[in-house]
Amino acid sequence: MEFQKTPGWLDWYDGPSKPRFKVPAGSVDAHCHVFGPGAEFPYAPERKYTPCDASKQQLYALRDHLGFARNVVVQATCHGADNRAMVDALVHSSGKARGVATVKRSVTDDELKAMHDAGVRGVRFNFVKRLVDFTPKDELIEIANRINKLGWHVVIYFEAVDLPELWDFFTALPTTVVVDHMGRPDVNKPVDGPEFELFVKFMREHSNVWSKVSCPERLSVKGPPALNGEQNAYRDVVPFARRIVETFPDRVLWGTDWPHPNLKDHMPDDGLLVDFIPHIAVTAELQQKLLVDNPMRLYWPEES
Ligand SMILES: O=C(O)/C=C(\CC(=O)C(=O)O)C(=O)O
């Protein structure tokens, strides 16, 4: 089946630079995706975008190029609750990839077990309205209670403006909760203003809540972009990510977000995204926690 990319789609950056920053041995890219290939793993009819293909082979080649050792492959909304492409990536990773799935309440216990055996360790609840339709909270709570029994966690993706209305639901989740991209703060607002203070409060008052300090390329307003050798990219995002890393050093994760769905302005050079890390985790100890200790404890506890 042929799929037409969403008009204006930006493909992932071809030929990323070699990072100057050497990530610690055993580093984990804790947020990335595979897309199809559509001919083998069709995109979901309910999707809100149609991406380029981005295969497990290309993901793992990027992992090696950037100096990472492992991946956490997150189900992208273009595949809906059809986790086959993501699971296929896990089973072809020689144990070096874990996954986060999207499931409906109709998922069977056998399907959950098969996903666990393949390396899935969490489910993702997406509240970004441009990406998904509404799912009733009772269905999400039912799913959270079921996967909690497997020792899985819940990844949540939402926009900062929606945190107040989602607060009660999020703080009632029984599992570890991992927030994608710091809950997408508006970096035009002060890092100590009410909007980001609420997010910091969310993490401070709930020790089961973690955050990915990823996707500066999505959040930055002033740039500069991670292109043409830029070693100080996305400066307006740094204070937000630094604050989370330094306040909650044991509950942060980092990921490339390759192949970077739905970027409109530019496509970052993934090598320069890696060079962004020392600006937000400024010591070797913080880098070790962010890139190795924390993701290993969450996704490979049996090895950490
Ligand atoms: O890749 C991300 O983390 C961000 C996305 C895409 C996404 O979440 C998805 O399709 O599942 C976005 O903001 O469009």
UniProtKB/TrEMBL annotation:
Top-level taxon of the source organism: Bacteria
Domain Amidohydrolase-related intervals: 28-299
EC number: 3.1.1.57
Record keywords: Aromatic hydrocarbons catabolism, Hydrolase
Keyword hit for Hydrolase: yes
GO biological process, any: 3,4-dihydroxybenzoate catabolic process
InterPro entries according to UniProt: Amidohydro-rel, Aro_Compnd_Degr_Hydrolases, GLI/LigI, Metal_Hydrolase
Enzyme class: hydrolase
GO MF annotation, one: 2-pyrone-4,6-dicarboxylate lactonase activity
Reaction(s) the record says it catalyses: 2-oxo-2H-pyran-4,6-dicarboxylate + H2O = (1E)-4-oxobut-1-ene-1,2,4-tricarboxylate + H(+)
Protein family (similarity comment): Belongs to the metallo-dependent hydrolases superfamily. PDC hydrolase family.
PANTHER family: BARREL METAL-DEPENDENT HYDROLASE, PUTATIVE (AFU_ORTHOLOGUE AFUA_1G16240)-RELATED
Protein name in UniProt: 2-pyrone-4,6-dicarboxylate lactonase
Organism: Bradyrhizobium oligotrophicum S58
